[in-house]
Amino acid sequence: MIVGRCKIVSSLCLGAYLVAIPAYAEIHFGQAVALSVGVVALVMALGLLFVAILIKDVVHNYLISKVNQGIKDYPKYLENLSSRQISLLLDRMVKKGRVGAILLVMLTLLDFPSLAQSSQPTAGSLLSQGGILITIVLISIPVLAGVIFLFFKITNTLNRYRNQQREAEAGRVAAYLDGIEGKDLAATLQRRKDALDFALSHNELSGALPANDHKGLINNVEHEASLPFVARKRKAHVRPKVDPELSRLITWFIITATFWLVFGTTVGEYLGIKFVAPDADQFSWLSFGRLRPVHTNAVFWGWASLAMLGLGNYVVPRVSNTSLFSIKLGWYTLILINTAVVLGTLSLMAGINNGGGEYREYIWPVMLLFGIGLLLTLINYFKTVASRTTKEIYISNWYIVSSVIFGIVISIVAYVPLWQNGLGETIIQGYYMHQGVGMWFMLFTLGIVYYFLPQQLNKPIYSYSLGILAFWTQILFYTLIGTHHFVFSAIPWWLQTVAIVGSVGMIIPVVAGTTNFLLTFKGAWYKITDSYTLPFFLTGILFYFTGSLQGTAEAFRSTNLLWHFTDFTVAHSHLTMYGIICFLLWAGIYALMPRITGQEPPQITVGAHFWLALIGLLFYTIPLMYGSTMRGLMWMEAKPFIDSVSFMAPFWLWRAIGGSLMWLSHLFFAYNLYRMMVAPGTVDIKETAFEKLRSIDRVP
Hints:
Elements: H1 2-25, H2 29-67, H3 83-96, H4 104-111, H5 113-118, H6 130-179, H7 183-197, H8 244-276, H9 288-319, H10 327-349, H11 364-386, H12 395-415, H13 422-457, H14 464-478, H15 493-505, H16 507-520, H17 534-555, H18 557-563, H19 568-597, H20 603-636, H21 641-677, H22 685-698
Helix pairs in contact: 1-2, 1-6, 1-21, 2-6, 3-7, 6-8, 6-22, 8-9, 8-10, 8-19, 8-21, 9-10, 9-11, 9-13, 9-19, 10-11, 11-12, 12-13, 13-14, 13-19, 14-15, 14-16, 15-17, 16-17, 17-19, 19-20, 19-21, 20-21
């Protein structure tokens, strides 16, 4: 079943990726649609075939159970019992004192297993536009995902019914085993148990004397019997259970966050295609000016914010050694934020926005819902920390609670329309632009890392003092740097200079934080190969260092003159928001969800998620940074603007390719999240039967 599901998801991902290729290769869009339809039909056909096989198996078991209500071929379960099961059965026979004759057929089945086995439409005006076709393809992806989800629900229902059948079968086998008698059968079972328990002493060839092995060539050799396709990773340690109500709340935060990640990046995938096919559509709701803020706001407020709050609902009470103050407030926050993102997305696509803002395009009544959600979260976290049973407030709560405070301040400053006009709006926008990234996303995520990284390494953070230094210097310098995006603008020269100085000052918290995290790895680097969470943490930490210092480099007037208004800022924003925030959030989710659900994700698909996201990010950012640098030089040399546009075409192609890989990795992540929430498996009739026997013994 697992292999079948992997094949289905792989077919879906491959089909979605192939759909984007015709835009680059200039293949007719009709071929892309035909290819997509073919892939969808193939996936649905495979799904129907699988369901049909499963239904046939369930019906077959049902008919057999009806026909054989009397004497069944239960003796088949005695053919390959384990030593432990035989011991349990013999003990019951001795306790009951059953030494009567056994059926000759039973002895025959035991002595001769071979005998026992032999008894078993036309294109219209809109459809002629490439953008509409691409849109249909992209819309079909979540529809197909819904079909696959329905398929999984059907198979899960059938599996539950089949397991009920097997549970009933196990009960009947247990009753049969409880009633069998026979001295000869007991002797036969004992001989089989002795054979199963026989083991070599492991010194038949070497003797009892120790080997003269002063170089350790024998005693220190590790032998792997098989060569795995992917490196084996350690499973999550069994830890204390999480409150079921809190687990449910956190799970829904992560589920909705993942939905907005897939939705937002699907929109971003389409925007990347439009860079290489700018005339793809003429539909107003799909214009670049409307979809671009849909993409950014969905991943900001939908994906990253919800994922952070979901993890924060676990970390804050955990490091306070208490329970979350109010589960109900958490649900209110979840509903308010999701409502804000839904309403904001619809309003943006309809052309309703707040005008001049670059990132803050949601109108203020929509973001008021988001702000209220943050206020409820702040109350919840404050009350939780106030009821802590530890004397100290761990550094994670310093970061998380302060980020929520700054998030509320940012929402008020950036969205209240009273001062949103003229030059003041420009200054506020610069403030908001960096406060949103550094004081909401970065502070919160660093607080999550300060908990989960030591937990995954099973050692304390290297230096608490370095963490406090990074915390206060980030608050000091990051709140000053927003206007470095408006160097050479009409805002006061001294304010530009303050922003540049603050950007240089950011070297202190970045170096302190990176040093603290990397030195926490000291003596534990070997654990990276055994973990599927630590590579995400390490990648996010390295991007934290490089991406943040790149922001410092961009702040100077000389570099601002070269890079500003080019796609270099686009590459930088993805290097930070994606390379830092997303990778660290994924690491936290992979660390937390197995503890909540008890289910591990498939290691091969976790690896596919990691490498597709990392390679896609590099394909996305490096060509854009190089091409944008050359484009800035062309502008400084007064080359015609259209020449710079033509020059960027191949780099925009790389942008689309990298974005496609990143988007594909998100589908793998969504699948991994599904696997961490759904428990696979089939009831083992024999093992369940003996469990029922043990339960019978426990009943007085």
